[in-house]
Amino acid sequence: MAFLKFMNESGFVGWTILLTGIGSLILVAERAKMLYKEYGMNTEEFMGKIQTLVLAKKLDEALLMCAQLEKKPLAAAFKTILEKADRDDDTIFQAHDIALSENTPLYTKRLHYLSMLANVATLLGLLGTIHGLILSFQAVAQADPAQKQALLAQGISVSMYTTALGLAVAIPAMVFFSFLTSRQNELLEEMMEKCGKLAELLTSAHIPNLTRQNVFPDHVPAMTPPTPGAKVS
Predict the structure, then answer these.
(1) Considering the entire predicted model, what is its pTM?
(2) How far apart are CA 140 and CA 138, in angstroms?
(3) Most buried of the four, 59, 100, 128, 182, by CB within 10 Å?
(4) Angle at which helices 145-204 and 89-108 pack, to 10 degrees?
(5) Residue 84 CB neighbour total at 10 angstroms
(6) What gap in Å lies between CA 48 and CA 231, rounded to an integer?
(7) Contacts of 139 (CB under 8 A, 6+ apart)
(8) Cα separations (Å) of 162 from 3, 118, 119?
(9) Within the chain, how many helices (H) and strands (E) appear?
(10) How far is CA 112 from the centre of its chain?
(11) What are 52-72's pLDDT values in tens digits?
(12) Are 14 and 161 in contact (CB under 8 A)?
């Protein structure tokens, strides 16, 4: 009841600020779920497994692993790049660019609306302040002396309520925006780094002398010591 009285006394501007706050809350919940739960993964472990499969020439298994995690942007980006693994270097780097352009919006979409809603709540609070002051000045100038005090108090209450409500919505929205933007940037940097390493790994794998077996052979043939007195050819 006290909350309804508070909202009714804050007027139309107050209800508008409340709707802005509900929209901000829904947006925060959706972005937090996606950035921290749905898109989060152990990138180092995933990158290590993919790298091992690529070096072992098991591209089908690498693609299958990415397909199983395709809802995660990093795995989807890896899948796009690995699908071009048998092409020339330029095609692989084009696939790298396409993978980033396709999956980056998954991290960034809708988050900028949270900053906009925080600013709108602040401005609506300011609008309510001005509206309340106008009501107060009208009461002083035009109202009947018997009602002047009540109307003046009503105008001041509208100013204070809408200002407080606007700040109550804007401050948490800006705090959540900062946390979510930090998480978004962290995921973006991880994706750009890992995709770059995968593209480099695939292009260098085309050079025969740089295969894992040639650089780090599994079995080194035993060397036969030369026979004393034998001619060295």
Answers:
(1) 0.77
(2) 5
(3) 128
(4) 160
(5) 19
(6) 49
(7) 147, 148, 151, 152, 154, 155
(8) 13, 14, 14
(9) 8, 0
(10) 10
(11) 998 888 888 999 999 999 889
(12) yes
Q: Which amino acid is at 153?
A: A
Return contacts of 66-71, CB within 8 angstroms, 24+ apart. 69/41, 71/38
Per the CB < 8 A criterion, the answer to whether 77 and 102 are in contact is: yes
Question: Measured between alpha carbons, how far is residue 91 from residues 20, 60, 78, 196 in Å?
Answer: 46, 19, 14, 14
User: For residues 152 and 150, what is the distance between their CA atoms, to the nearest angstrom?
Assistant: 5
Chain mean position to CA 140:
51
229 conformational bin, left if phi > 0, alpha if psi -120 to 50, beta if neither: left
pLDDT for 3-19, tens place per residue?
787 787 778 888 999 99
Report d(CA 4, CA 23) in Å as an integer. 19
Its sign, for the CA torsion 10, 13, 15, 20, is: negative
